[in-house]
Amino acid sequence: MIRILSVRLLQAIFVMVAVTAIAFLMFRFVGDPVATMVREGASQAEKDALRVALGLDRPLLIQYLEFVGRALHGNLGTSFRYQEPVASLLLTRLPATLELVMVATFLSLFIGIPMGIVCALKPNGFLSRLIQSLTLVGISMPTFVTGLLLILVFAVTLRWLPSSGRGELVDLGFWKTGFLTASGLKSLILPSITLALFQLTLIMRLVRSEMIDVLSSDYVRFAFARGLPRRYIYGRLALRNALMPVVTVTGLQIGQLIAFAIVTETVFQWPGMGLLFTNAVGYPDIPVLAAYLLFVGFLFVLINMIVDMLYAFIDPRLRTK
Amino acid sequence: MRKCARALLAGLAMVVSVTAPSLAQTLRWSSAGDVISYDPNAQVDSFTQSVQNMVFDGLVRRNKDMAIEPALATSWEIVSPTRWRFHLRQGVKFHEGQPFNADDVVATIQRQIDPGARNKENLSAVTGVEKVDDYTVDLTLRGPYPLLLNDLVAIYMMSKPWMAEHNALKPGNASTGVVTYASNHANGTGAFKLVSYEPDSRSVFAVNKDWWDKPQHNLTGVEFRPIASNATRVAALLSGELDMIAPVPLQDIDRVGNTPGLKVVENPSLREIFLGFSFRPELHAAPGKPNPLLNVKVRQALWHAVDLTTIQKRLMRGKSRTSGMLVAPQVTGYDKSIDVPLDYDVAKAKSLLAEAGYPDGFKVGLACSNDRYIADEQICLAIASMWAKIGVLADVNVESKTTYFPRMDKGDLDIYMLGWASLPPMDGYSVLQALLATNDGNYGGSNPNGLSDAKIDELARSASTELDEAKRVDMLKAAFKVTHDEALYLPLHQQPVAWAMSDKVDMPQFPDEYVRPWFAHMN
């Protein structure tokens, strides 16, 4: 067990080093921040001075090593655009993204699972065909199109919901939440549906196929033969077993949602980490870009490691190998 | 615990219901970008400066006609060419109650010219500041400098006790990682108070009831919400969540204008769009051969070959103003007799090319951004096809502003598109200093391609110290005449500024694209 753990840790460190290197080098070629940071009539001397002040005149390798050194101390540098430490910038944006992801996950589970059950119990019924074709449309449409369509219908035409932003927030000191106000809750609806759509379809299809599998297994058929109540068979026997992979997939998908909420956040001007990232691309705010990639890389390494460890814990065969 | 939560919710519901009716006279507006910081010295972004202007006042300001008028200074005199004396307005109070006096001006100017201030060059002529008495201040200058008032328009007065209390006497700085209290809080003397600032979400402003000036608006508050996505910003206006968006995307102008209850307001902005030429020995598109652009006849031929009328009618939908010089009519140094583009004449262009020794044309690079100016990419493609008619084969390269401007700065481009608004000074000298003068130290910061004209260099240097306004304007005009005669740049047009707003809003539009809610009326 300890051997597996240490090997995994080593791999994780290697991945993180690769991510920092790629993040850092890639964004050096996005553009020159000096060009966007100086005023319109700036002189050559002014531009050169800024370049030196930002440390952009030094060799790339030195800049990279310094970046890694600071990152190890928890210092991700200062944003060129906001003039604030990047770490605190990411932390202030985290609540917005997490709330969005939480609601999206909730929606996808509480709509996706019942839909999957319906589709499994009556695979050829009208309702299940309708659900299947509707979700197919939803999943094949680009996120920004879905978002804009929702805005067009519910914000512009019907005027039921706001088109953008988070609404009124309540500051809890360490967390600014939109859950406690009416406008905050209303603002959550459209972006979370947009973000949930992909995961919802995934879960619906997963539940459906797992349920169909389980329902055709021997123990379910014996349960029917014994005359157990249907509710007990579907709920206790079939659904429970079908939900095991759903839990794993949902866990992994939460990482995906946090990392790729970028499009949804941009369309809805949702002030989370994704919007921070898109704005940083246009500036170009290199410390923010690099730190964001670092954060996402770390998130995925962490999630994958936990999942692997859990598998090893549950399945003894993986340990003896 | 549950009781507590219920009480909290009830309290919140009350807060929401109490604040809702007062929204009636609140101007809610949106733009694509957000305020970078409320610290006047921590950035150089002109949009940020325009929003800060709601909260802060300068010693002088621009009135409705864009002319400079007294603000926190009531009068001034030139004691000697290097010493200007300002008499301050009495009885002015900052938003948090501190009285305004000479100490505040001294602290503000010192903060502005501090080596750590990101925008210290906005007041580069000033070397020091001295208090004469409680309401008189002297600024000392490097040398005679005619544009001091123009520069002071964008220097916002902060409160010394407030800065001292919050440890913000030194400006914030990205390179050293200094963040101050002034980044997200603002205490000015302006028409509106900053109530709250959430980056990328909103800035909320309340009316300053104790403003020293008579309000020319009837607002009860202002809410600014940045929305980066064009489609979402337009949707928010259509849905009634906003009263105004600035700017409205060009492709949505017709749709928004035809919506009942909304209107589109358009005027030419100060921003002139033009093409710059490479004056290096060789072109990047044709290495090893002498650069044809060094010949004035070639540059004139290229100018004659551009059909400016078609660009104005088709690509700019009739909204731009075709021009022949690098500054707009409102800018000092403008001369109507110079502002004449070379006429569209393909035959003449061909003969000029032949005279210059290029009867069959040549190859050249043409570069544009695709996200900076209105229709920038389409204009570039159109010009390339127009030049093809005279045998000039333009290798068009279009890219995002984040990579385009750094390449331009390095001199990697043969012919390139650039826009210039002469802001904040609104003076032709800005063009002389940054675009026309040879790239050297404090001159030619945006002239990376070897353009060098001895006469213009001399005019730029003498205009920078000439205090006689009439003489100075003549120098600017003389430099622009050379630019036109030698076709050093190829001017295209003055691009429009387009805002969309509700019928209920009455808001004047300015060519510098500043939104000035202190002139807004809502009914």
UniProtKB/TrEMBL annotation, chain A:
Keywords: Cell membrane, Membrane, Transmembrane, Transmembrane helix, Transport. Belongs to the binding-protein-dependent transport system permease family. It is found in: Cell membrane. SUPFAM superfamilies: MetI-like (SSF161098). The lineage of its organism: Bacteria, Pseudomonadati, Pseudomonadota, Alphaproteobacteria, Hyphomicrobiales. Pfam families: BPD_transp_1, BPD_transp_1_N. It is a multi-pass membrane protein. This is ABC transporter permease. The chain crosses the membrane at residues 12-30, 100-121, 133-161, 188-207, 242-268, 288-314. It comes from Mesorhizobium shangrilense. The keyword Transmembrane applies. Residues 94-311 form the ABC transmembrane type-1 domain.
TrEMBL record, chain B:
Transmembrane segments: none annotated. Residues 68-440 form the Solute-binding protein family domain. Its main location: periplasm. Gene3D superfamilies: Dipeptide-binding Protein, Domain 1, Dipeptide-binding Protein, Domain 3, Periplasmic binding protein-like II. Belongs to the bacterial solute-binding protein 5 family. It comes from Mesorhizobium shangrilense. The lineage of its organism: Bacteria, Pseudomonadati, Pseudomonadota, Alphaproteobacteria, Hyphomicrobiales. The keyword S-adenosyl-L-methionine does not apply. Keywords: Signal, Transport. Residues 1-24 form the signal peptide. It is found in: Periplasm. InterPro entries: Peptide/Ni-bd, SBP_5, SBP_5_dom. This is ABC transporter substrate-binding protein.
